Amino acid sequence: MSSPFSAGKLVIANWKMHGSVTQVRAALSVLSQDSACNQSHIMIALPTPYLLLANEWQQQQQAGWQIAAQDVSSFAEDGAFTGEVSARMLADVGCRAVLVGHSERRQYFAEGQQVLSKKLKALAQHHLLPILCVGESFAQREAGLAWQTVEQQLDEVMPLLKELPQVVVAYEPVWAIGTGKVASLADVEEMHTQLQKKLLHSLPACATMRVLYGGSVKADNAEAILALPQVDGVLVGGASLDLGQFKKICQASEKR
Q: Domain spans of the chain?
């Protein structure tokens, strides 16, 4: 699995269930014309219906940004699974990476260890880079269980992570996703330090790793977050739909 990213801190936009053909075309045009956004360390996670459109645009314009999917089927092989989208299909339409384990998938679709393990296996089979999302709820943090929760989420899939040449983990405190609340820089630094120690201890020496922060990342806080040496990039939700904000976040990543 070759790295899809250039040097630099990653910026991954998660559009979630938003968009239209018109909006996607307009956004990709803007991103392709901005030097800070038109880089291989910038990735756009689009809704599935727009992935092929983005791939065709990227090829025609020779754009530098990369394409990601927001989810993948847990069924590794194509078959009679109506509504599912396989890892092979995502690779076929130009995806380089896929979000897995996002808190919204865990919460609304009850995705746990078994489903995540199947998805990670499918992605590895088709040489797609998983971006594993982990994070704790507000109640878990208040109870002093933040790290215990995140470590457990890692341990559940660590045997599969050990088999990957590259590991990208996105720490997203659940209580900060879409709420406007942001973990303090001290909280981010502490959690990312623990994550890096855990991964360094658990993964083979030859593996590369990056730990991203997500959770109400916006233009006005991205630079401070990206300035932390323990933060290898950001996963951006709602602010990625505001192109003015997203361009500023991309510009902040260039400074690091």
A: 10-254
Rounded percentage of the chain residues whose pLDDT exceeds 90: 88
The CATH code of domain 10-254 reads: 3.20.20.70
The average pLDDT across 176-190 equals 85
Asked whether the beta carbons of 45 and 10 are under 8 A apart, the reply is: no
How much is the pTM?
0.94
Q: Is residue 156 a contact partner of residue 111, using CB atoms and an 8 Å limit?
A: no
Helices in the chain by DSSP H: which ranges? 21-33, 51-61, 87-92, 103-109, 113-125, 138-142, 146-161, 185-202, 219-227, 243-254
Confidence of residue 5 (pLDDT cuts 50, 70, 90): low
- Between strands 10-14 and 66-69, the pairing is unpaired
Residue with tokens 């990312």: 192
For residue 77, count other CB atoms closer than 10 A to its CB: 11
Catalytic site positions: 102, 172
Q: For 118-133, what is the HEC assignment?
A: HHHHHHHHCCCEEEEE
